[in-house]
DNA sequence: CGATATGTAGTCAAATTTGAATATAATAAT
DNA sequence: ATTATTATATTCAAATTTGACTACATATCG
């Protein structure tokens, strides 16, 4: 559960309720590289509370609104955060690309249809790359070093992926 | 569950029992890019059987050995395989790199320790790259086009990752 | 103006994934 | 010769993840 680092990290900045974390993830564009169902976030908060890493600070009741439960990080949580930070930095990228599994069995597929499917993929990667590059330009100096660095990494990753997929098409699927 | 494609794909080649699939994954070096606990494989077989994509062909009993349950793919399963193949080809790479989450909160970490952690990561990526490149050389022509293509993609990916991580260190973590 | 979509805040059952446990045989290491 | 590890084949409880659902408020649109 790498949502742990996300939650602890955002709580390092101050008390928050789960939904607020959700909003921050969107606002900072983290939703590009952190995919999860909303339910998981509440689960992460629960687990972190049970293990004493975070604690309830306040429950805000507004009439005709669901209650907001504000959480804050504990000293134990801050320690754990430091450790998690190092652990995550050590984890190498996973090579789990859905295309890899597909390529393994490409010989059983219809080349025409596979080519169309790959084209869809290429278009999507192109779109995403464009999106990230426009963020990079527009927000220029307003981005933190961390955010800028992640953008660079993601864009590089997508470029490499594009080149590779185009090569597959040029090689006509090895036929 | 992308194990579905794996199971169906390997059953396209003939009847197999779950453990045999496990062995094939290792033998073909697919374990580099397909990570899962063994239990998941049995679950995938169960689900595929329930939905009529595969069926039990035979149960082999050897004294003092667990039974082997041999499965074969059904016509319905072959159809589903074709569809899954296209679906997986369309799925763009996920940008879910553990380092991204860590970088987001790098400002709260100890630069010295983070640098050490990243160095560990770099070493591991270097090792893996070497491993894949040696496979690429040694098996040269004996690899199928698909396997060769996956290797190229994975190696490119790792190179891009390396360049990026080294840049982070050179930039001294933005400090 | 009423219908429809979007934002707020969270719950929960069901689906999936993990990882430890089982039990036996063969091989390797000291 | 005895201990330790690896290989064979699977099961299952527990941990995690998903995604549908609730319920009300505000904004949007023809």
Automatic annotation (TrEMBL), chains A, B:
Q: Which Pfam families match?
A: PadR
**Can you name this protein?**
PadR family transcriptional regulator
State the organism named in the record: Brevibacillus fortis
Which residues belong to any copy of the Transcription regulator PadR N-terminal domain? 7-82
Give the InterPro entries listed for this entry: Tscrpt_reg_PadR_N, WH-like_DNA-bd_sf, WH_DNA-bd_sf
The lineage's top-level taxon is Bacteria
């Amino acid at each position: 559960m790498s949502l742990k680092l996300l939650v602890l990290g955002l709580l390092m900045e101050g008390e928050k309720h789960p939904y607020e974390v959700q909003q921050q993830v969107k606002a900072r564009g983290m939703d590009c590289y952190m995919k999860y169902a909303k339910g998981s976030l509440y689960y992460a908060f629960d687990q972190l509370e049970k293990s004493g890493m975070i604690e309830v600070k306040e429950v805000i009741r507004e009439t005709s609104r669901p209650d907001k439960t504000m959480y804050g990080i504990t000293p134990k949580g801050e320690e754990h955060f430091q450790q998690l930070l190092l652990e995550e930095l050590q984890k190498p990228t996973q090579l789990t690309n859905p295309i890899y599994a597909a390529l393994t069995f490409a010989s059983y597929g219809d080349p025409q249809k596979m080519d169309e499917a790959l084209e869809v993929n290429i278009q999507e990667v192109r779109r995403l790359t464009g999106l990230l590059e426009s963020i990079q330009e527009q927000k220029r100096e307003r981005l933190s070093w961390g955010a800028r660095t992640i953008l660079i990494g993601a864009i590089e990753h997508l470029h490499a992926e594009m080149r590779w997929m185009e090569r597959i098409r040029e090689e006509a699927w090895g036929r």
